[in-house]
Amino acid sequence: MNPTRDERVRAGSRQRREQQKQDVRQAILDAAAALFAEHGYQGFSLRQVAEQIGYSATTIYHHFEGKDDLLFTVADEGFSRFGTQLVAASDGASEPLARLKAIGRAYVEFGLSYPTYYELMFIERADFMLGYRVGERKPRLGSLDIVAQTIQEGMDRGVIRPGVAATYANALWAAVHGVVAMHIALPVIDRAQAEATADAVLELVVTGLKG
Amino acid sequence: MNPTRDERVRAGSRQRREQQKQDVRQAILDAAAALFAEHGYQGFSLRQVAEQIGYSATTIYHHFEGKDDLLFTVADEGFSRFGTQLVAASDGASEPLARLKAIGRAYVEFGLSYPTYYELMFIERADFMLGYRVGERKPRLGSLDIVAQTIQEGMDRGVIRPGVAATYANALWAAVHGVVAMHIALPVIDRAQAEATADAVLELVVTGLKG
DNA sequence: TAAATACTGTAACAGTGTTAACTTAGTTTA
DNA sequence: TAAACTAAGTTAACACTGTTACAGTATTTA
């Protein structure tokens, strides 16, 4: 049975309304990302977001469960970009040690380029890495598994000293995270200095991995 | 001229009042440190401190300039303990590479033992490292200079590869900071795992420093 | 004794996240 | 077509936060 004219009108109307809702949701997200980048985690508030887009604060609660949900959605966008950049860097190098260095550099590059995203994703709300709802446990960091895999591969090939691949992966992660975290927390450590530190720590760790 | 009886009484009274004032100040500090350790940076509030010691919130402002001043004073106590532990570890080893490892271990040990202090001093309010008043610049981390000095010493002796000592020092700092920061931000990474990661990253960096 | 000083409390302001209750518009159903 | 329902928005309010202005009270000083 073909749809009647009434049905078509109603379908179109419903679709239009749904679109409007998505538009508002997207406006909230855009404003949130912009304001977050401007004011950082501490200075971010829902009322500012509402004001920015010309709605009352409570409207946000019709599109998100609350502040955490909104922030998590913003962070998820960051995790997506993050993963893309890391995978691209990984694909650019085939030899294990070179690949580890490339991933490490991409990691730091992301942190220095999007410091507020990094602050949200890995410092203030590192719990978001494990997902929003407490039981979720859907890992948002599959990109970091590449590190452990690459290290294991290097061990199998004999170019990386024997050991626990996961522990070495955590060590590498901690090293690059430390560089970015210090740069974000201490304005004294500017980008050039952070990059020099990153190069040094990557060189040292990778050299150490050789044995 | 000997003090009259009146003068002696007044002097005693003044001293007693001064003592009482210091007592209140100390009570504020103790309560602040305890509540901070319990609730962390985000959940810490002046009104809780006031309630804890049975004073109104405004009283705190007669003993400290505000929340920042109070937090900084708490942090300063942390910096003091931190410096003591690091110096002790440094004195326990004479050979440069062994000393670097000992300092690194002591650094992580401090972070894992006093996570809320660490959170305040190096994560949430890393600006306190440079002092409270903006122009101050009195470095609160002379203990970290030991690292650069030790590395320079190792280079002079030829047991550490040539390079910029300060950059290598920052790299080592970033590595241990990263371990502690991840442990504090991610409850998933428990103490044992953090210690294993710290051992690994120190081993790798120190091996890398050999050349 | 009178004036000055120091410490404390109450009340208030501006801001936060969040919830309840209400309006208004559009959709669905009887 | 009329009634019921749903969705998105509003305003008002609650319980917090850091901070400041002002008043009171006790003690010290002149």
Task: Explain what this protein looks like in three dimensions.
The first copy, chain A, has 211 residues and is mainly alpha-helical. Helix content of chain A is 73%, strand content 0%. Chain A has eight helices and no strands. Chain A has helices at residues 5-39, 46-53, 67-91, 96-113, 115-124, 142-157, 165-185, 191-210. In chain A, α4 runs antiparallel to α6 and α4 packs antiparallel against α8. The first copy, chain A, is elongated. Chain A binds chain B through residues 122-123, 126-127, 129-130, 163-164, 167-168, 170-179, 181-182, 185-189, 193, 196-197, 200-201, 203-209, 211, and chain B through 122-123, 126-127, 129-130, 163-164, 167-168, 170-179, 181-182, 185-189, 193, 196-197, 200-201, 203-209, 211. The structure holds a DNA duplex (30 and 30 nucleotides).
Estimated helix fraction of chain A = over 70%
Oligomeric state of the chains present here: homodimer
Output the radius of gyration of chain A. Answer: 22 Å
Number of helices of chain A: 8
Helix- and strand-based class of chain A? mainly alpha
Order of helices and strands of chain A: HHHHHHHH
Largest sheet of chain A: none
Distance between the termini of chain A: 73 Å
As a percent range, the share of strand residues of chain A is under 5%
Number of DSSP E strands of chain A: 0
Low-confidence stretches of chain A: none
Whole-number mean pLDDT of chain A: 91
List strands and helices in order, with pairings.
2 copies of one chain form a homodimer.
Chain A: H1 5-39, H2 46-53, H3 67-91, H4 96-113, H5 115-124, H6 142-157, H7 165-185, H8 191-210
Helix pairs in contact in A: 1-2, 3-4, 3-5, 3-6, 4-5, 4-6, 4-7, 4-8, 5-7, 6-7, 7-8
The structure holds a DNA duplex (30 and 30 nucleotides).
